[in-house]
Amino acid sequence: MAAGLRSRLALIAALLALAGCQRQHKRTIAVVPKATSHLFWVNVEKGVRAAGEDLDVEVLWNGAPAETDYARQVQILDSMISRRVDGIAVAATERKILVSTIDRAMAARIPVVVFDSGVDTENITSFLATNNYEGGAIAARELAKAVGIQGDIGLLMHAPGSTSTMDREKGFEETLAKEFPQLKITTRQYSMSDRAKGRASAENMLTANPRLAGIFASAEPGSVGASLAIRARERVGQVKLVTFDSSDTLVEDCRTGVIQAMIVQDPFQIGYQAVKTVVDALDGKSPPSRIDLSAQVLHPPDCAKP
């Protein structure tokens, strides 16, 4: 009898312990950035980690080193779905490739928030990003202010299929055509998310177009590359440069007049709000289908974001 009582008490204790563990189990949010190497994504991760602490969720941060490693991003997302995370936030490297994977996550009742760069599907929980089209429009107006109302312009693009930067480039082109028709984009090249390639592309622009009056670079790798090229060719002040995103190098080049205007995002808030939006969905709230965050403009010499 005593042995039977002890057995029942042990079973009750085990069940209570299990219930306690289940109550203490943290929800797991997978966050898959475009890449992990650039300063922008480092600051996004800081926001993601802060949200994880504030909202008491476990964050799984995992991304490919390069933004052009499309297959690796698919693999990471597939692995997160297979381990049955509670929610996902992903910045798509390419707008089409992830569609079927996201559909699979949503079918498994895993809420998916797409942030920074969109995908070609509405089957997501929410999309959160800087208003990139408007950021490109601001860049067009800033370059026109620096160059004047006429001249030849170069557009240093990021990478094919990257929705966020494509929106910036579209906003830039359409605003130039509408508001400054005498400013002509005479050369377009890609940086392919690589500073060295961005520099080579910018140097090709300067060589092939000696009358080039200005350049807009739509992301950090191309922005750094264009700045390096202008300094190397001793064209500072002659070729006006408007950049998108920030880094220590870009801030310094803005302060010294290599860059005439920097269009910057708030990567910390992008990361924080991406996680918060997933948690809101898990809590039964209905996040907006689209959440737009504003870009800022910085000019020399006060180029460090407050």
Helix count, DSSP H or I runs of 4 or more residues: 10
Measured as a percent range, the helix fraction is 40-55%
Q: How many distinct beta strands? A: 12
End-to-end distance: 73 Å
Largest sheet: 6 strands, parallel
Which shape, going by the Cα principal axes? elongated
Order of helices and strands: HEHEHEHEEHEHEHEHEHEHEE
Strand content: 15-25%
Tell me the structural class: alpha/beta
Radius of gyration: 23 Å
Trace the largest sheet across and list its strands: 2-1-3-4-5-11
Mean pLDDT: 91
Which regions are unreliable across 5 or more consecutive residues at pLDDT < 50? 18-23
Outline the structure in words.
The protein has 306 residues and is α/β, with parallel strands linked by helices. It is 48% helix and 19% strand. It has 10 helices and 12 strands. It has a 6-stranded parallel beta sheet with strand order 2-1-3-4-5-11, with helices on both faces. Helix 2 links the parallel strand 1 and strand 2. The longest helix is centred in the first third of the chain and has 23 residues.
